[in-house]
Structure formats: C-alpha cells, structure tokens
Amino acid sequence: MNSDGEEVDRIVGYLPPEEFAAELDRIRQNIGTISALQTEVEVDPNNIELWKSLAEKYEEKSDVVGAKDVWETISELDDTMAELSSFKVAQYSTSLDGNIDKIKSFIDTYPDSKYIGKAYHAIIKFHKKNKDLASEAKAFKVFSDLVVKMDEKDYNALNGYAWRMAELELNLKDALDKIRIAVGMIDEKELKSKAQVMDTEAEVLWKLGQIDDAIIVIDKCIGLQPDDEYFTKQKQKFLDSK
C-alpha cells in the first residue's frame, strides 16, 4: 500500500523468503506494478504485451472492472487476440452484469476454442449461484456431451458432471453413461483415480435405486483402496438404505 492506503501491488501465493524479499524490492522500486504499467502503456499504447501484463495485474487483485476494460482495449488493438479477449470480456461481463448472453455468444462464435470448457463452467456457475438447478443441469449436460464428443480423455470433467447430477438427482441415466465412459478413460495403474471415479458411479447407481449394483462397484473401490475408510462408509450407507 502507498501512504494514501491505495494498493500498489500484491504477491499472490507463497514464495520462499529470498524470492519474497526480491518481490518486495521490485514493488518498492515500482517495477511491474499497476501504476508503472499504466504509465508504460500511455507511453507505448500499441504494446500488447504491456496491456496483457496490466490485465494480469488486475486479475490478480480481483479487479473485474479493470481487467474487463483492459481486455476490451486489447481486442481493439490486436485482431489475433480476438478469441482470448472475447472470452475474457464475456467472463467478466457475466460477473459484473449478471448476464450470460456474452458468454453464450462466445460459445457460438468459437465452438472449438480451448477456452470452451471455462466458458461452460462460467454458465454453470452462474446458474448454480442463482439456484436455477434445472438450467445448471442442462448446461452441465451440454458440456459433458461436448467432452465426450471431443474425446480428450477428460475423465475429471465427466466425473464432476456425474457427481453433481447425483447431488441434484437430475439427468441420472445420462450421468451413469458418462461416468462409465470416464472410468474407461483411466489407466488401470491409476488406482486412486480409478477408485474415486468408480465411487461416483456407485453414488449414481444408488441414487437410481440400483443398490445392489452400487454395492458391487463400491466393493471394487475398496479393493483398489483398502485403507481408505471413505469407501467403507459409502458401502455402509448403501447397505443401510436397503
């Protein structure tokens, strides 16, 4: 902070003592701070790298308004940054305006974008925050369909979808299909990951009322991770519900 109580810069996350001290020295010298970068872009307004560094600083301090404004400037200056800047502006607009039209527009414009997963998660998060569970489940299903279609072996994404559907008790049959696809994506040597994803399969089966099948699957989890008490508790939960 400066003498007026205004933030000069921040150090995000843990740094070892020597690196932390070096960062403090950098900040004292006003190198790479928001005010320094603001001055630099005024001198060199077409320098995209400076603008990106400034955007990153705003993002680090969770200044959504500042970050959105900078990314809008970047989009005007460099057409090659259109995809990323469009995503960033849409993402921050959702946070600021409580409106998901821009993030939907981004998905329509860039359906093959590497940011598409983050875009869908922004929509899912928006509906979850607004307690619109039906819309959340619908958006999550569309995203999970895309994950399967892209065939990128993203079992974590499918696991997240299936577990959330189990919590909401929505799309359960589709969730079961997706979690079984996820199980098949995992290498047999990855015992912990295999057990965690199969646990989701067991949970979905249980929510579907297929208790005996859920017990069969959770027994496999116990076989993979015999020292993990969680799976034993899951089995007991299933048994108690019979």
Index terms:
242 residues, mainly alpha, Serine Threonine Protein Phosphatase 5, Tetratricopeptide repeat, 13 helices, 0% strand
- Global outline: elongated
Taken as a percent bin, the fraction of beta residues is: under 5%
Name the CATH homologous superfamily of the largest domain: Tetratricopeptide repeat domain
Could you give the count of β-strands? 0
* Number of DSSP helical runs: 13
User: At the first level of CATH, what is the class of the largest domain?
Assistant: Mainly Alpha
The CATH topology of the largest domain turns out to be Serine Threonine Protein Phosphatase 5, Tetratricopeptide repeat
Order of helices and strands: HHHHHHHHHHHHH
Poorly predicted residue ranges: none
Distance between the termini: 60 Å
Helix residue percentage: over 70%
Main sheet?
Answer: none
Name the CATH architecture of the largest domain.
Answer: Alpha Horseshoe
In total, how many domains does the architecture comprise?
2
Radius of gyration, in angstroms, nearest whole number: 23 Å
| Secondary-structure-derived class | mainly alpha
Mean pLDDT across all amino acids:
94
Which SSEs are present, and which pair or pack?
Elements: H1 17-28, H2 34-43, H3 48-60, H4 64-77, H5 82-97, H6 101-109, H7 116-129, H8 133-150, H9 155-168, H10 172-185, H11 191-207, H12 211-224, H13 229-240
Helix pairs in contact: 2-3, 3-4, 4-5, 5-6, 5-7, 6-7, 7-8, 8-9, 9-10, 9-11, 10-11, 11-12, 12-13
Verbal overview:
The chain has 242 residues and is mostly helical. The chain has 13 helices and no strands. The protein has two domains: 1-77, Serine Threonine Protein Phosphatase 5, Tetratricopeptide repeat; 149-242, Serine Threonine Protein Phosphatase 5, Tetratricopeptide repeat (Alpha Horseshoe). Helix 4 runs antiparallel to helix 5, helix 10 (172-185) runs antiparallel to helix 11 and helix 11 packs antiparallel against helix 12 (211-224).
